[in-house]
Amino acid sequence: MQGERRRRPSLSLPILRTSRGQHRDGTLTLGNLLSALGETSFGWAIVLFSLLTLLPLPPGSSLITGLPVLVTTFQMVLGFPHVKLPKRLARLSLDHTKLRRTMARMRPVTRRLERMLVQRYEALFAARHERALGLALFVIAFTLFLPVPLSGWFPAIALFIAGVGIVERDGLVVIFGLLMGLAAVLLTAAILVSIAISTNALMV
After folding, report:
1. What distances in angstroms separate CA 162 from CA 30, 67, 108, 178, 189, one per listed residue?
2. Are 187 and 151 in contact (CB under 8 A)?
């Protein structure tokens, strides 16, 4: 078992290999990359879209980059059989260099995941649980849109971990991602409440 885990291909390999080829061909868009990875898998969509929110972009960009993951998780809630991106989002051009750098920064996380991934707790992926799972992920994704400084990384990483768990059908990793996401939601809520109390105190 230990040997099998050491030989597991890097989680970043499919994304980097596909994006590099599409970048070379001048066809690297959000829709093309997702389609090449396997758009029927919500897991790959969540992995890819959470990475977009971690790209080195100007402050406030998460309002745009977080939209795809919000759309994806809402489609899970509605029971869609696969991801259906709006045409405008599908045509969004991606920067291969920034994507590669983001994957490099995520390497400490992906390296640990690669060592522990195994198919388990697969009942979590039953069709009857998909909408509830999508709702939990949607709530986490929604925190990306809240105007809380430096709050985007935590839920984005939680979504990334949960997405990897869905791709690999590792229910334990999905649960870990959901718990991390819950912590992110509670932290964001606490910060917003603190800001509201401080603002109210200044106005009195």
Report:
1. 20, 17, 16, 7, 21
2. yes
pTM score: 0.82
H helix or E strand, kind and range, residue 193: helix 171-203
pLDDT digits (tens, 9 = 90+) for 26-63: 989 988 988 888 766 788 889 988 888 877 666 666 66
In the structure, how many helices (H) and strands (E) does the chain have?
12, 0
Q: At 10, is the secondary structure helix, strand, or coil?
A: coil
For 169, the token pair is 């059908």
Contacts of 50 (CB under 8 A, 6+ apart): 69, 156, 157, 159, 160, 163
**How many Cβ atoms from other residues are within 10 Å of residue 82's Cβ?**
11
Pair 65, 55: CB distance under 8 Å: yes
Paired with 170 in beta bridges are: 120
